What we know:
Elements: H1 24-28, H2 31-46, E1 50-54, E2 64-72, E3 78-87, H3 108-121, E4 144-145, E5 158-162, H4 172-186, H5 215-225, H6 243-254, H7 258-269, H8 273-292, E6 296-297, E7 304-305, H9 309-316, H10 321-359, H11 371-384, H12 394-422, H13 437-454, H14 461-465, H15 473-503, H16 519-555, E8 563-565, E9 573-575, H17 577-596, H18 600-628, H19 635-666
Antiparallel strand pairs: 1-5, 2-3, 4-5, 6-7, 8-9
Amino acid sequence: MVTRSKNGVFKPRVFSAQLEPRSVRDALINPAWKAAMDAEYNALLQNHTWKLVPLPKGREAVGSRWVFRVKYNSDCSLQKYKAKLVAQDFSQRPGFDFTETYSPVVKPTSIRIVLTLALSRSWTIIQLDLNNAFLHGDLTEDVYMRQPRGYEQGDGQLVCKLMKALYGLKQAPRAWYHKFSTTLQHLGFRAIKFDVSATHGYRWNIDFSIRSLEPRNAFKFFSHHQDDSLYDDDGRPKRTGTMWMTSSYIITAVIGSGTLSLAWSIAQLGWSGGLVVMIFGLVTLYTSHFLANSYRAGDPITGKRNYTYMDAVENILGGKNSIFCGIIQYANLYGVSIGYTIAAAISMMTITKTNCIHSSHAKKTCHVSGNRYIIWFGVIQLGFSQIPNFHKMRWLSILSSMMSFTYSLIGLALGIAQVSENRGFKGTIAGAEAETHAKKVWAIFQALGNIAFAYSFSDILIEIQDTIKSPLEVRTMKRATNLSIATTTTFYVLCGCIGYGAFGNSTPGNLLTAFDKPFWLVDIANLALIIQLVGAYQVYSQPLFAFVEERTTKKWEIIGKEYKVQIPFLPSYNLNIFRIIWRSLYVVVSTLIAMLIPFFNDILGVIGALGFWPLSVYFPVEMYIKQKKIPKWSGSWILLQSLSMFCLLVTFAALVGSIVGVLLDLKTYKPFSASL
Length: 676
């Protein structure tokens, strides 16, 4: 046999003087190795591999150590210095630090079959070598590890509670296998029958999957992952949102039914109400910028993304803050869906009543029952709630934002016409009078709650930001917020003040209900409002849908199974049984609650008060302080905390006033008897 050596072919021998450090101390005093350690440590932090916590009683921390290697090129020249932090698995205790450790690997037969098929059919084969693959695996056990040497924080009492499968852990290969195979299943791949559990081949330095009956599809999957035009840096489908698209989401969320209650709110506050509206707008704009900075951890361009408000709070503030945030956020989102159902039903009733009065030449009072309209709106939402996610409702958001401007402009025009007919502005500096001073105070507090509700969109800000194309999501979000808040504040002040000037202290809770002519224009405004509320309902419900479905799928994987359904003349639809049942139940329950308590202004006040301070002020301020490392008792810290405390007092006052309003309405209200 002729070998390379017989032909005089030898690998060149190049001797390197590069030595690997024997200890962490030696590495830290060498700038090259220190840079390699910093790169590894920062990568672990950006991946949220652990969080620092006190070691619980009865638990032992797993050891950690640094591993140093010099990487060479094929000609033995220096390539790079590599430092890796690994866990010392010999100190892991079964039943405490790990349970199952088995991780399937691909069968050699499967590899030979795929290579044979590829060769015979001239397919392109792509080999993948994933960097830090194990760090993508999620741990199900509570594993505590000592802090890496050279990077200790705190007083020595804190340890790392691992959130990701660090190299060296006994269960790390299993966690990575579960993460990767589950992701492929969600993307529609299937395991072949003769090798159902073998999806990864680490022994051959190959990370590939045989997940389809048609191998061409399997390889096509990997070619997609290598295409930067189809996927973002986190492996998710490419985000394509722009500033204008983001503004349409915000306007759909902000210019909602709250616009119609602002005239009543200003009537309670008097002519100073316009200034109060602008103050709320400035506070919302200021804190929204704080919240936009929380989308990425660390670097605003390349840092790890926070996909939800809860993720941002958990990763930045930690502790029980995320639980409190989740309860407030999702309760507020659900409350908004109830409020929008009531508002849409009122608009439907207004259309019916206006047409009845017009057809009878104003001879009938035209009493209209609201239950059927609430049910109709619920039926509409049963269909729209099956839109899979935020990214699939772009067209609905654009349509809703257009409808927002339509009914706002009509309301403004009708108000101006009424002022012209009155030959002057009505209203006073002190606002509407009340039977007692206490009722006046409650009305003012309720008005503050309504204004807070009108600016409520912080609870979905990060979810909206997650639709913006990379890499300038933070800057784009801030620009979209500036444009949206400026636009909505202008509309709010104009609609609120013109509405108050048109009707004075007798301004109704829903401005459109005050007009009955020209009836066709009033009908168009109410119809536009109904269409806008259909989209706004979905904008606020989608984050709650996604939260429940993601958590449920993690616990029971079979729930996430989808079936492709071909709809005539339309694109195919991925049908999920759990999504249909859960979202339909959500709509049915919110519709029933809307029928029970259709107190429009009071409900808006309660919802706005509950969500304004924690979601729009407290968490954004606290995360900003933590990110910028603002020291306690500094001038900036005192200013931010003063803003937070002032908004807390306003929130408490608004909540009390709105609750009192609900209690007063309950004295004269019978369930399921909504009417206009």
